[in-house]
């Protein structure tokens, strides 16, 4: 078996095309959505991701507000930028690019954000809304994964899903989304403390690998016919992405997300969707 591709690039392009029309409609009503980004430090990956987010904004007609601080920025300096974006009417949604340099209190900075402008769905109020099943912005990578699966007709209803990882952007919120009635999956969350990861993986219809451990998920651990999403980003000596999924998995799985070209573009598209939805909500109220 050679797995079919869960094509994030193509799916994200379709989402962006729909968003372009919705942004044009908002502009006709006098509303221009604006995405702010707060980027602290010089991590090359973070710079690349933020640049990609602003390229996407230009494509769909969303205005960009870029705020950059050096790696030496103090907690107070970052908090001042967050307060400034909270108050700026041109900024209808924004994100703080993670991870922040060591020494900064990430949770305190996220808590300071105006939840109505939280484009990532990572503010505690919005994570709480997700737990309570109330409407709000959904975390971009987890919801991007669900949209990618839906778009390719992969059955989520009733599926056994294994999520590997427990980080705040993917691992923690992913099971909350998958177990909503609209998705109806049964989820096992694995992490570095899991005793026998392979035993869990072998039962999974869908695997979301987000541990950041190169080639952690091996072909012999995958149930034939499963869907496998590779969300891990490690780099080899030449800077090339190495995912959490061993390339041999393509011979066992029915569906596989390429990395790059799978979940990454969906994360970016979902961010734009959150910005547009927030602007539409504001325009209606
Ligand atoms: N505030 C946030 N910080 C981070 C998030 C997040 O959702 N919100 N997620 C990740 C990084 N991330 C978004 O910010 C992200 C990762 C990857 C991509 C992407 O398009 N990747 C490309 C490959 C790019 C490359 O060559 O390096 C792909 O997969 O095709 C976009 C966004 C951590 N931080």
From TrEMBL:
One Gene Ontology MF term: methenyltetrahydrofolate cyclohydrolase activity
GO cellular component, one term: cytosol
KW Acetylation (keyword) present: no
Binding site for NADP(+): 165-167, 233
UniProt pathway: One-carbon metabolism; tetrahydrofolate interconversion
Transmembrane segments: none
Example of a GO biological process term: purine nucleotide biosynthetic process
EC number: 1.5.1.5, 3.5.4.9
UniProt keyword list: Amino-acid biosynthesis, Histidine biosynthesis, Hydrolase, Methionine biosynthesis, Multifunctional enzyme, NADP, One-carbon metabolism, Oxidoreductase, Purine biosynthesis
Annotated catalysed reactions: (6R)-5,10-methenyltetrahydrofolate + H2O = (6R)-10-formyltetrahydrofolate + H(+); (6R)-5,10-methylene-5,6,7,8-tetrahydrofolate + NADP(+) = (6R)-5,10-methenyltetrahydrofolate + NADPH
Domain Tetrahydrofolate dehydrogenase/cyclohydrolase catalytic: 6-120
InterPro entries cross-referenced by the UniProt entry: Aminoacid_DH-like_N_sf, NAD(P)-bd_dom_sf, THF_DH/CycHdrlase, THF_DH/CycHdrlase_cat_dom, THF_DH/CycHdrlase_NAD-bd_dom
Quaternary data: Homodimer.
Family label: Belongs to the tetrahydrofolate dehydrogenase/cyclohydrolase family.
The protein's role, per its UniProt record: Catalyzes the oxidation of 5,10-methylenetetrahydrofolate to 5,10-methenyltetrahydrofolate and then the hydrolysis of 5,10-methenyltetrahydrofolate to 10-formyltetrahydrofolate.
Identification of the protein by name: Bifunctional protein FolD
